[in-house]
Design a protein that fits this description.
Length: 606
């Protein structure tokens, strides 16, 4: 069995090595013909030029993350059977951050999951919403908030789709999605049917962006496999598709039909038009879609879309600025690994970890596959730098899900977080093998293109099979925190206790000509010797929603020389000599509207 597997891998690898250049050439020729112009395939560079080495100062201590979920009141368990006999039981759920009443404190959404039996009886409430009453004290307000729709929740994304200043909630699920319109004070109205965004099938990722820049956010939904509740595949039945290392497991996704993806254009009257096919993002190949995220990888001001596909090549949809997209995943070197292997991809994030002004892509993958870091080489496409960045080896054993580039120690360099957890509980019976519950991983940016595994700092945390992870400053102290969904368990809330004396700043952006939540806005912060970029996003990580405010670590700099806001409308505003250690609220065209102080820094005694 193992020998045959190795042989199979060997063959597919050899075939890929022969076929990949041919495929690249043919697709380049095909698009050249179609477009009636010459397309030059990106040159294959052996090794990308390394950025200048800037050793990490030993003086920056690692932050301490403390799980405060229980005392904070996050006690509702995610719903899942212990044995997970079907693939639909392994993919939920996402986590989300939303300030549902605009009181300046983030509230928390966790997606609930379900079971076959419960789903057949109507399912479970899709999400739980916790309101942050006081600092890190939360109350479950799901029922009073009107978030009543039942089904089988998977992921979540937040955006103000009607530009009324109140963030709305979109939830993906198996059998139907939900759109909750925010009425104020964290009361919601279910507008799914009126808006026409129920979708159906097996939806997973959701991500909002104003792809046509008309001032209204549009919605992309990725879908996974075709799963028929009335024709359940027998657990362990098929020798090829329902086995893992010789043991019986749930069937799929291999051997299952994939479902198409969906793009909705926001009409501006509370309804949406499905434009997936017209826009060229409908996934006719039926790959198994999971994490989805928008980001402007080519710096042209138009949001592009990346979709992680399980057990298949990932998509990079380049925005052609006319309502359509071209899929450039293979041609840009960002669809598969450097050696041409398709990965089981789950979670995604864009981030400029080199501070070079270009968004790189990080993708979390299945077990015995490294998580992949794709460096953005600009005109030359992307380069898989997972091995040289030292991320491949530590991430190889685990099944990765929720993830983000985030500056955990406020030194101005983006670090990486990976939530892990196996899909099959049955792996615990394999002697010496992987476990169902897996550790969280943390990687510190060493500023030279490599990352240091500092996961040992989280060693005291309970291991779980984790899925969604949402990142943001949940207690408004200037340090990035994380909320995580644990399969079949209550969530984890990791508060970053900092311990550094680094400066930082947070920006909340409000669009006027642009969409109100400023989704797609890019902020560039320049301090002495460092230029950092961030973008406002709605949907990312593993089917989760981060804090829409933008957080920057500033190291020893107490002022920013220059802050540039590129609004989704194209308007550019520049602020000069801006003081750090504040939360700024900026309105498009009106500059700084509000400032709230972050806590005083620790005095550095060194
Ligand atoms: Ca709204
Ligand atoms: Ca739009
Ligand atoms: Ca773009
Ligand atoms: Ca914090």
């Amino acid at each position: 069995m193992i020998a045959a597997h190795l042989l199979y891998n060997f063959f597919s690898l050899s075939i890929m090595r022969i076929l990949l250049p041919l495929v690249l050439l043919l697709s380049a020729m095909a698009s050249a013909q179609m477009a009636g112009r010459t397309v030059t395939p990106p040159p294959r560079k052996a090794v990308a030029k390394a950025p200048p080495a800037m050793p990490h100062p030993a003086a920056t201590p690692l932050p301490h993350f403390e799980d405060v979920a229980k005392q904070a009141g996050l006690t509702v368990s995610h719903i899942s059977t212990p044995d997970k006999k079907y693939i639909v039981e392994s993919m939920s759920g996402g986590a989300g951050l939303i300030d549902c009443d605009n009181d300046g404190k983030l509230d928390i959404i966790t997606v609930n999951g379900s079971t076959i039996e419960r789903y057949r009886q109507g399912g479970d409430r899709l999400i739980t919403l916790y309101h942050q009453d006081a600092d890190l004290k939360f109350t479950d307000i799901t029922a009073s908030a009107g978030l009543a729709r039942k089904g089988w929740g998977m992921g979540v994304a937040v955006a103000d789709y009607d530009n009324d200043g109140l963030p709305d909630i979109y939830v993906t699920g198996y059998g139907g999605n939900a759109l909750y319109h925010n009425l104020g004070n964290c009361k919601f109205e279910d507008v799914t049917d009126k808006a026409g965004v129920a979708v159906g099938g097996f939806s997973t990722g959701a991500a909002w962006a104003d792809y046509d820049r008309d001032g209204r956010v549009d919605l992309f939904v990725s879908r996974y496999v075709h799963f028929d509740m009335n024709k359940l595949p027998d657990f362990g039945s098929d020798e090829k598709n329902c086995r893992f290392k010789g043991i019986l497991v749930q069937c799929g996704p291999w051997g299952m039909l994939g479902e198409s993806d969906v793009l909705f254009h926001n009409r501006g009257d509370g309804t949406f038009e499905e434009v997936s096919k017209k826009a060229g993002v409908d996934d006719p190949a039926g790959y198994y879609g999971l994490g989805a995220i928008w980001g402007d990888y080519d710096n042209d001001g138009w949001p592009d879309l990346y979709v992680a596909n399980d057990a298949g090549p990932n998509y990079l949809y380049h925005n052609l600025r006319n309502g359509t997209f071209e899929e450039l995943g293979m041609l840009s070197g960002i669809a598969v690994s450097a050696d041409g292997l398709e990965q089981g991809s789950m979670g995604v994030d864009w981030g400029d970890y080199l501070n070079q002004g270009r968004m790189a892509m990080f993708v979390t993958n299945f077990t015995e596959q490294p998580d992949t870091l794709y460096r953005n080489l600009g005109q030359e496409g992307f380069s898989d730098v997972s091995w040289p960045s030292q991320l491949a080896k530590p991430t190889y054993p685990y099944v990765g899900w929720g993830t983000a580039f985030f500056d955990m120690d406020n030194d101005g360099w983006l670090d990486l977080f990976v939530a892990n957890g196996h899909v099959y509980p049955q792996v615990d019976s394999i002697p010496g093998g992987a476990h169902y519950r897996e550790p969280i991983q943390l990687f510190r940016n060493k500023r030279d293109g490599t990352f240091e595994d500092v996961s040992s700092g989280l060693a005291g945390l309970q291991e779980e099979s984790r899925r969604g992870a949402a990142f943001g400053d949940i207690n408004n102290d200037g340090n990035m925190d994380v909320v995580l969904v644990n399969v079949g368990q209550p969530p984890t809330l990791l508060i970053n206790r900092g311990g550094n004396s680094n400066h930082r700043v947070v920006f909340k952006l409000i669009g006027s000509k642009s969409n109100r939540m400023a989704i797609g806005a890019r902020v560039t912060v320049k301090t002495e010797g460092l230029t950092q970029i961030r973008e406002v996003r709605a949907g990312g990580s593993y089917i989760s929603q981060n804090d829409p405010r933008l957080h920057f670590g500033l190291g020893k700099e107490s002022r920013m020389e220059r802050v540039e806001i590129r609004w989704p409308s194209g308007n550019i505003e520049v602020l000069k000599d801006v003081v750090a250690d504040l939360i700024y609220t900026l309105i498009e065209g009106q500059g700084i509207q509000q400032k709230a102080a972050l806590p005083a820094l620790l005095v550095n005694t060194k």
